[in-house]
Amino acid sequence: MPSATLWLQTLWRRNQACERHSWDYVDEQGHLFEKCIGDLIAKNYQLTKGKAKTDVVVTDLMMDLHGVALDIMGECSFGRGFGQTPPLKEEYLGMEDRIWLQIPHSIFHGLTRRYKMVYVKRWLRGLGIKLCFDWPADMIQAIDAIVKERSYCKDYSQPDLLQHFIDSGTRPGSSAPMNTRDIIDQLSEILLAGSETTSGTIACLFLELLHIPEKKTKLLDSLPVLTATDPIINSKTVRTEPEFRYLDACIKETLRLHPIASEMGRKTGKDWCELAGYSIPPGTVVSASYRHLHRNPEFSPKPLKFWPERWLENEKARDGAPEPDMSAYYPFSAGKHSCIGIKCAWAEMRMVAANVFSRFDLEDTRNLHIDFRQYITMQLENGSHKVVVKQRI
């Protein structure tokens, strides 16, 4: 592991001067986050409305988290959610709701096919055969209708990603404006990267806390107790107010134990190179494991223990927990290829956890089987995590 450690520590030092998104921009988009999280809160209140304390109300937390993440990405990318939490109530530019609702499925299914076929396509390309991939026709038509509507409407002011691509997006490798297909390709990758990663990380946070009652109790005691009518806690509040420090520590510890991307790979150039005493041939993919590094006792004592106190600011608050070694911590990668959506991810993770735990107490259902699987990202085996949900007041 020394070669991976050296490599990652070098990237960490480079990353200290690399800021990709300003908090001002994230705060400007905060109303979109608040809308989607508000829908999730309303759904849980509807489930628990009128229930006695002894009543058992069960919801699929993983599906809820994935749904709110998709709706946030839909609002921020397309200017409209995908109806994952509340159902859509009106047509959009004349298209059927069925088409719009199918966009996330089409994207995930299509990207899965693309990743499965990547080596086959590469082999066929070597034989001079180009295997083409395309999205469902109705999905292309739906997004093309939005692109055309936005292009005609010059005073459209929604600062989402789609508008950015329409106004100033260029095709990779040239200065030609993006066409609809280019835009779909880019937004599909962003939709996957921005929903699977955050929903998976938040699920791991809830999973750890629900399995360690004393940590969950400590977190709940640190948070305000809110009702259905209280405003949604916004991004700026949850990242700056002292009452959310322990929540922040819990999220950081979750990212240490469960980095959503398990490794980082880079391909060597055209020449042989030396890395930590090894001679690496040209064109070789070299990967370093974040998970292995984060769980290395040399850098994180008692590495398998969920110990949020590691991340608290002063020694007294840490209560015997070791101070974290930041040169061995890469939940969002590092260097110039680090996650461009890091601040958006932080805003979503903090806001979802703060608003849910301020209003509800959650418990695992009995005989729950939890297993992790590495797909494109680390996910629960069957994509489900059922929990009992109760109002805090």
Automatic annotation (TrEMBL):
Transmembrane segments: none annotated. Pfam families: p450. This is Cytochrome P450. Keywords: Heme, Iron, Metal-binding, Monooxygenase, Oxidoreductase. One of its GO terms (molecular function) is iron ion binding. It comes from the Eukaryota. InterPro entries: Cyt_P450, Cyt_P450_CS, Cyt_P450_E_grp-I, Cyt_P450_sf, Cytochrome_P450_monoxygenase. It comes from Aspergillus violaceofuscus (strain CBS 115571).
